[in-house]
């Protein structure tokens, strides 16, 4: 058995592939739900529909989606430029650290100064954390997958080191920082809502990305770099410089996500401040097809499921990790299905080889 | 200040063992041109499967066997994604790691909410009265069998030759009649088994219990070690020992309190920083396997 490339792809192939992937993922995640002793149908209704059936639920979903909007669009920006930034986790954490450093050293800043400075610090922190791999890629053509990935555990160690040492909570002695001054609290978007300005900023960033990628010449050049770097270079696009900038912007956006989370939700630095948001950002960006709208939709879906997962874990005793199982499984299934759709299966023994062509694994 | 050298060396060997297992596993896989970022999840799966089976069956041997099987399975899935389907290796690897860790945590939470079960029988150390050599048999195997064995296989056997050929030029390997996909699948499954043993060593030999943060980045340390070693077996072992000795030293120093002000986190970050600096210094001279991150498809 082997896979043979289809000559022409039928129109219905792509939507059908996604549908099949979603159905397979649903069927496979029904197994652990059943093992947990719950009715899959009732559980899925709670995962997907219950959070959206009340205003308070929608509020929670948007709150849960906020960090994923940031990390998802951050990863998408880099991937679009053909820069494989796996380091959104570390850049997110670097953002939280930079914001915390500012908030702890100037605790009494009034909101008018604290809010913009706090967000800016987070963005710069993420940008700085992304700078080294981006620079190594630009100067030495050093593979960024490994360097961005390896800086993630380093960022986590920085957070832990600071919380175990200088930033240990001065009143409780626990390993989380003191609460920030109230000037740093991102205000709620609507009165009574938990959704904070961070969500609004994320939406603005996503809209700006949509505009830049789709409507400007820089966006066109970036997409060209991502799709065919050699052709782009040949046509005079400064590939190295643009990719370097995309990498920095990507880190900065992830860092903004960190600032938004620490100023909008926790109001202090904690060890678990990033609930795998950076790695999940890779899922969000990939499932979203590296488009602004796709990222927004997938982040919303994963936010919905994570709120649902907490609910199901309380009501039906299904552990909340089911949300993470669902999203990672969905990623692998959709990627597989989208690739399979371009092939048909040939059951006969393989014929003699003809020509060979290496394929750089596709985004 | 007094430094207990015996305890230091003994701890070094124990800390290095899972890194040697998983690091060599990753090196074997990467030599065929596949970057397996599923390593963190595969180690986690091995630690978890080994623990659960050992707990239920009452034997660490059965646990180890189950861990090996789970590692082979994880390698098979990675092969399906990156070899057969030719998907993006880093995205697949991250996805697999997230899936495996979430699945294991899910199962653990389901079975043992709020409990911390311990194994009735875990592996005991050999030569318990001899200083430094009082190690688990998996440590002995790692240094005396796995490392020289995989070095020899990669260097002097047909299997090693095929691994090298596929990693350096899969078109040429294919023309020479070497199956690119079979070689990669075998490497992924064998490497996956090694990674799982590395994880299972922690639950079956060291701890005798399972914790949700059991692997906590050891897989990423191995990714760093393999690059630092430039995909060669013995340097992976040396790298693991260097990392382990700084960690053990740190624990010792914290106990003897003279150096307790050196943050442990700084020491733990050393392997990553070392690799990134090494990459920066070596620059273009780092010779990655030529087919690194590439999927192979006949035209």
3D architecture notes:
The complex is a heterodimer of chains A (363) and B (299). With 363 residues, chain A is mostly helical. Chain A has 13 helices and three strands. Chain A has helices at residues 13-35, 40-48, 55-80, 88-105, 111-140, 144-164, 197-215, 217-227, 229-234, 239-266, 277-287, 292-315, 322-340, and strands at residues 2-5, 343-346, 359-360. Chain A has a two-stranded antiparallel sheet. Chain A starts with a strand and ends with a strand. Chain B is an all-alpha fold and 299 residues long. Helix content of chain B is 71%, strand content 1%. Chain B contains eleven helices and one strand. Chain B has helices spanning 5-31, 39-57, 60-84, 89-111, 137-156, 158-168, 170-175, 180-207, 218-228, 233-256, 264-282; one strand at residues 294-295. In chain B, helix 1 packs across helix 9 (218-228) and helix 1 runs antiparallel to helix 10 (233-256). The longest helix of chain B is centred in the middle third of the chain and has 28 residues, at 180-207. The radius of gyration of chain B is 19 Å and the shape is globular. The model of chain B has no long low-confidence stretch (mean pLDDT 91). Strand 3 of chain A pairs antiparallel with strand 1 (294-295) of chain B, so a sheet runs across the interface.
* Beta-strand residue percentage of chain A: under 5%
The major sheet of chain A is characterized as:
2 strands, antiparallel
Sketch the topology of chain B as an H/E string, one letter per element.
HHHHHHHHHHHE
Low-confidence stretches of chain B: none
């Amino acid at each position: 058995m082997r896979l043979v490339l289809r000559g022409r792809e039928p129109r219905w192939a792509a939507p059908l592939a996604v549908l099949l992937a979603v159905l397979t993922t649903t069927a496979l995640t029904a197994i652990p739900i059943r093992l947990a002793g719950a009715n899959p149908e009732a559980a899925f209704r709670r995962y997907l529909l219950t959070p959206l059936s009340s205003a308070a639920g929608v509020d929670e979903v948007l709150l849960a989606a906020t960090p994923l909007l940031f990390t998802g669009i951050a990863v998408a920006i880099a991937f679009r430029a053909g820069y494989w930034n796996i380091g959104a986790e570390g850049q997110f954490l670097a953002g939280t650290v930079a914001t915390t450093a500012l908030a702890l050293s100037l605790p009494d800043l009034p909101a008018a100064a604290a809010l913009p400075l706090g967000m800016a610090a987070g963005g710069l922190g993420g940008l700085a954390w992304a700078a080294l791999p981006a620079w190594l890629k630009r100067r030495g053509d050093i593979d960024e997958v490994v360097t961005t990935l390896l800086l993630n555990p380093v960022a986590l160690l920085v957070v832990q080191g600071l919380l175990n040492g200088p930033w240990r909570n001065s009143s409780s002695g626990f390993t989380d920082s003191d609460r920030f001054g109230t000037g740093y609290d991102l205000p709620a978007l609507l009165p009574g809502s938990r959704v904070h300005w961070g969500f609004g900023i994320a939406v603005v960033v996503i809209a700006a990305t949509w505009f830049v990628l789709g409507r400007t010449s820089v966006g066109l050049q970036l997409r060209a770099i991502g799709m065919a770097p050699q052709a782009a270079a040949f046509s005079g696009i400064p590939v190295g410089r643009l990719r370097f900038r995309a990498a920095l912007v990507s880190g900065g956006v992830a860092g903004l996500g960190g600032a938004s989370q620490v100023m909008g939700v926790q109001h202090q630095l904690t060890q678990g401040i990033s609930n795998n948001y950076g790695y999940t950002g890779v899922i969000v960006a990939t499932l979203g097809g590296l488009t602004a709208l796709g990222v927004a939709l997938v982040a919303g879906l994963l936010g919905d499921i994570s709120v649902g997962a907490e609910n199901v874990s309380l009501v039906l005793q299904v552990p909340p990790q089911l949300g993470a199982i669902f999203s990672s499984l969905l990623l692998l299934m959709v990627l597989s299905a989208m690739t399979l759709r371009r092939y048909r299966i040939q059951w006969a023994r393989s014929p003699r080889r003809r020509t060979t062509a290496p394929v750089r694994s596709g985004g | 200040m007094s430094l207990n050298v015996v305890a230091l060396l003994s701890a070094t060997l124990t800390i290095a063992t899972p890194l040697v297992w998983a690091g060599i596993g990753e090196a074997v896989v990467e030599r065929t041109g596949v970057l397996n970022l599923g390593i963190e999840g595969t180690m986690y799966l091995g630690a978890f499967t080994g623990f659960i089976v050992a707990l239920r069956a009452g034997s660490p041997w059965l646990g180890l066997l189950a861990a090996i099987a789970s590692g082979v399975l994880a390698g098979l899935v990675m092969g399906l994604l990156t070899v057969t389907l030719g998907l993006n290796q880093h995205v697949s690897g991250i996805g697999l790691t997230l899936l495996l860790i979430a699945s294991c945590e899910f199962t653990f939470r389901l079975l043992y909410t709020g409990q911390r079960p311990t194994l009735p029988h875990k592996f005991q150390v050999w030569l318990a009265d001899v200083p430094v050599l009082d190690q688990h048999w998996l440590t002995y195997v790692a240094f005396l069998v796995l490392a020289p064995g995989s070095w020899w296989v990669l260097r002097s056997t047909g299997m090693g030759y095929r691994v090298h050929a596929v990693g350096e030029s899969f078109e040429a390997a294919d023309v020479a009649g070497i199956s690119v996909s079979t070689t990669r699948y075998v490497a992924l499954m064998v490497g996956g088994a090694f990674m799982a043993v590395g994880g299972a060593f922690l639950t079956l030999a060291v701890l005798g219990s399972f914790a949700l943060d059991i692997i906590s980045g050891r897989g990423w340390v191995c990714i760093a070690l393999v690059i630092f070693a430039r995909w060669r077996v013995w340097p992976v072992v040396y790298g693991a020992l260097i990392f382990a000795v700084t960690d053990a030293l740190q624990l010792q120093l914290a106990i003897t309190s003279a150096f307790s002000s050196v943050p442990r986190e700084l020491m733990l970050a050393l392997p990553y920083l070392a690799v990134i600096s090494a990459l920066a210094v070596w620059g273009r001279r780092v010779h990655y396997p030529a087919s690194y991150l590439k999927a192979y498809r006949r035209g």
